[in-house]
Amino acid sequence: MTEPAVSADGGAPGGKANSAPLLGRAAEPTLFELSHPGRRAWSFRTSGIPEVPIDQLVPEGHRREEPVPLAEVSERDLVAHFTRLSHRQFSVDLGAYPLGSCTMKYNPKVCDTVAGLPGLAGVHPGAPASLTQGWLALLVELEETLCEITGMAAATLQPAAGAAGELTGLLLMRAWHEARGSVRHKVIIPDSAHGTNPASVTLGGYEVITVPSDDRGCVDMEALATVLDEDVAGIMLTNPNTLGLFEEDIAAIATAVHEVGGLLYYDGANLNAILGVVRPGDMGFDIVHMNLHKTFATPHGGGGPGAGPVAVSERLVPFLPGPRAVRVESADQSPVYEWMTPPQSIGRMHTWHGNALVLARALAYIVANGGDGLRQIAETAVLNANWIRQRLTGTYDVPFDRPCMHEVVLSVRTIKQAHGVRALDVAKRLLEEGFHAPTVYFPLIVDEALMIEPTETESPQTLEALAQSLERIAHEANSHEEGWMAEFPHETPVRRVDEARAARTLVPTFDARG
Amino acid sequence: MGTYIPHTDDEVESMLAFLGLSSVADLFAVVPEALKLQRRLELADGVGEPDVLARMEGFADQNRARSDRLVCFAGGGAYDHEIPSVTRALAGRSEFVTSYTPYQPEVAQGVLQAVFEYQTMVARLAGLPVANASLYDGGSAAVEAVNLGVAASGRETVWVSAGIHPHWRQMLVTCAAGTGHRIETIPLVDGVTRWPDDDAHLDHPPGVLMVGYPNYLGCIEDLAEARAVCDRTGALLVVGADPVAAGLLKSPGAWGADVVVGEGQVFGTTLGFGGPYLGLFACDLGQVRRLPGRLVGETSDVDGRRSYVTTLRAREQDIRREKATSNVCTNQTLMAVTAAVQLGWLGTSGLVELARRCAQATRYARDALLALDRVAAFAHAPVLREFAVRLPIPAAVAVERMADAGFLAGIPLGEDFDDGEHGLLISVTERRTREEIDAYVTALDKAVAS
Q1: For residue A433, what is the nearest residue in chain B, using CA coordinates?
Q2: Cβ–Cβ gap A120/B59 under 8 Å
Q3: What pTM does this model have?
Q4: Is this prediction's ipTM beyond 0.85?
Q5: Which among B106, B171, B335 has CB closest to A494?
Q6: Inside any domain, residue A213
Q7: Looking at the structure, do residues A351 and A227 belong to the same domain, yes or no?
């Protein structure tokens, strides 16, 4: 094909940042070091309430003797400080973020507007259903939409993130078995699974049984058969899996697990690959969690908030967490919404109703894209990943040489053997090219893994620029002395940080500084 | 239509040709045909931004209980506090909003340093040396505190005060189904916890005590007594603290808390129908290797410059897997950054002033309400910034009537409390004026008259 136009300096529309998007590289002092006694920024409403001395407000013995020491800064200083900090931070808005497994797609701004609507943002969660009909209607609509997308019967919107969704799913699994009088102890997960899966299994009160992947990167069916028995509560799978590969034997896996009375749990981390193409429910899954902060473009906020709704098949609906918003018909046929706790509910997984404003963003995103747009998202995400795979085959190792889904796992193994350059070095070098690094060293079963997920929102020009950067890096590895690459990055706000020292001499607060 | 996808049809054709494929459907050849969805998703087609906004505003318009329409006297773990323009502007910066977990510290110093400052502020509020980078909400922080306390004490029995938020208590019970922890609720007497006074012959001595400060009813608990029970039984003391009250009250750490958890929504996060909120978590240094979630630490880069990085990573799920201290991965970082900005805006004097104004408004409102013939105190223990009253009619009915008068009157206590049907929990923040409170008192008097 003709290569997409990339400007002479390697720039690309949208997706490539300047490697050093900063005003200088000086460290930013902490807010505490900017503090000056007596300075202030706060101001409150004029209330007209008569003043009462503090010693009459606080019971004897409970009053704090000294105020909590916080920083004392002016509003101007506060703005400058956090603005400078923001200039030391890479983000999707700045450039491509091909971080595998994280689906760092563009976050539409219209969803920010939605999250700020006073009629959504200004609603107290403890207000009764009669005064919050709009919110309940929104939650019901989102639940129904997510069920259509996943092919499930009903969902809870309470879990605040993917890991919370996993625990919810495992507790549902436990409750379902217990209601049938069945006591089971084991949950199977593949060796390529996300770390949250085994951690959640433990919190669900189960023992982790790991099954290996076969030489095609999928669940080893023979190994699975040897661990399946009536002590297995279920299996947790990601499909496409964390290698970016579709588990082609999923129907056979579902049959085998169901035959021993187990349930199938779908980790929705990779749902972006299959929107509108194939649904977890149709593959035989009983429980599905979704990461709305991945698939449905809610911004990840530097590490959260997310939202991890869990959808289930019909037989698990009575066990869902409560309360759940439901639609009931009123006398005049217009819909009315109420809270309902399912009869055999496992209980509650969030203080309130889940990360509601994240849920509203996700619904807005789905409304904007529509059913047609969702399928196009999956198609384009898979197209972009396969293009990258094909483009970089020969430059990097491709451990599983078959079409991928929304992400591709490459390996730096050959380059490392020849020149000592590791996946970490490639990642750090790429930062200086103006891209975020891919996920490295995951999945654990691939040596020197580079896991690249371009997402559908990066243009062909950005992909080309990314590919050129990765080719340049491979070329540099071949043409420079060993150790040259390990010096990178040079131009980022800080260079490689001493992680060992951070753990050895723990400084978790400003007050712990030596 | 997917307006956020940049590809033109020509570009798609060209990329497919590069892959040797003739259509996008070929990309999914690996998916067994029998599993594929043989129809379109039954969802409406995509629409443009104006239509999206109209649709979502339609939902918003159906919410009567919005703080710009009903004056908010509801609390119960979610409060209508001032959120200044500066907090909205800074916390809304897209560098903070649209970044991922700081896996590459060289390009994530902004978030890392903001979280380091947040951790410092939370630790100071708690009176403990370490705070993590946030958890989902107050309830999830309580769950994690119990998990930590059971692991540290080696005992699975947990004594939870009935003054802990009822929803937190429900979460503790829900999660105990998986962990096997024994959650025992310790009752309140006139608003404060009545701990068992003879625990010499307990079959299952507690590994953890959890108490609110102030508690759900707004009452100020005796933490010295709770600490004494812990010393006697060998349990860890977990305090669910209101971080605004910390502006006036002694820190839980000063009372001997081992772990402090709390709801951080009060620092700059909108009511938002309950989320995303912010789970505060602080603990003693001795527990740091059991700390759930992420922790940011200071270090230096290869040039010796001060830097920040997530640390003690060996605790976490992606490394330790089934032996991890917690399954938390994604947390509430943006709310933590928001809290750092808001606490920067408040500063040392502002936090005191905030707590003082809340306490003063609460005193004013409570005195006026209790002067009414038909309204009585629900409990008599001292309160600071929230209180419960007993009404002659069901509180849920009062809330409905008060909405017609322009108020969100409070949270009915409901079945979680003895005679809770007539109990109403009322919170008065610094945003309430004397006129609003006076009007509220008059309206409530009328609402409960029949």
Answers
A1: B107
A2: yes
A3: 0.97
A4: yes
A5: B106
A6: yes
A7: yes
